[in-house]
Design a protein that fits this description.
248 residues; alpha/beta; Cytidine Deaminase, domain 2; six-stranded mixed sheet; two-stranded parallel ribbon; 8 helices; 12 strands; 33% helix
């Protein structure tokens, strides 16, 4: 965003952000908050005179149950929700932000070059099993629709593992125990996903975990999955012999 000529301020969830990254901003442009401090978030947005905001990074799901320090605004907000999951909670936060006149932008903004694209993104070792791929895509979309997860691993027409609350690392570790030879890791977006606060990502850590589990294929939904540090991730995937493809 700064490269595009926009001024930036940062409101950081204190223990979920890289300190070195924060040091690249002037101290007066940075405010730290804890998970659940909604009033402090809103006051900071007003103080900085923010008109547009983007959510970036991740708040670990376990914070919904442990380590959360809700203020009165957050307690009231949570009490009004019928369901407590990422989509409902962040949707309520987005509404509170909109109520003070701040527009929450699509989190893919300014990251067009980092999105997965259709077709092979690395040199391919062999053709991916199309039937397994389609099964995996349809299954991933269904569990995403049910707010269970957004990733699956499929092997020769069998769904081996699905992502749940434990996250992507746990999914890959579970699948790795089967010592599979033709497994495909698939990541998709939800149907009608709200990209203001919930964008699927694929990065170096996931790539290394796939390699450790001997999973040599990854399929990502084009234009909806962000590849963090895309150039280096794709180059490293090629070195590891992991094929990464994008699908519609």
């Amino acid at each position: 965003m700064m490269a595009a000529g926009h001024d930036m301020v940062v409101i950081a969830v204190d223990d979920d952000v890289n300190a070195g990254w924060l040091d690249s901003f002037p101290a007066q442009n940075v405010t730290k908050i804890s998970v659940g401090q909604i009033s402090k978030l809103l006051k900071a947005l007003k103080r900085f005179g923010v008109k547009f905001a983007i959510m970036a990074g991740q708040v670990k799901p376990k914070k919904l149950f442990r380590g959360m320090l809700p203020d009165l605004k957050a307690l009231w907000m949570l009490a009004t929700l019928k369901e407590h999951h990422a989509e409902s909670i962040f949707g309520a936060i987005a509404e509170e932000i909109a109520n003070i006149g701040v527009e929450l932008l699509d989190a893919r903004s300014f990251m067009e070059e980092d999105l997965a694209t259709i077709g092979p993104m690395t040199s391919r070792r062999s053709a991916i099993n199309e039937k397994s791929l389609q099964l995996g895509i349809s299954t991933a979309r269904e569990i995403a629709r049910l707010n269970i997860g957004q990733c699956v691993i499929v092997n020769k027409g069998t769904i081996v593992a699905v992502e749940d609350f434990a996250g992507t690392d746990d999914l890959i570790n579970r699948a790795g125990k089967f010592n599979l030879k033709d497994a495909i890791f698939i990541k998709t977006a939800k149907y009608r996903q709200d990209f203001r606060f919930d964008v699927p990502v694929f990065g170096m850590q996931t790539l290394e975990n796939l390699n450790g589990a001997n999973i040599k294929y990854a399929a990502l939904e084009a234009q909806n999955v962000i590849i963090l540090d895309k150039k280096n991730v794709l180059a490293h995937a090629a070195k590891l012999g992991i094929d990464i493809v994008g699908f519609e």
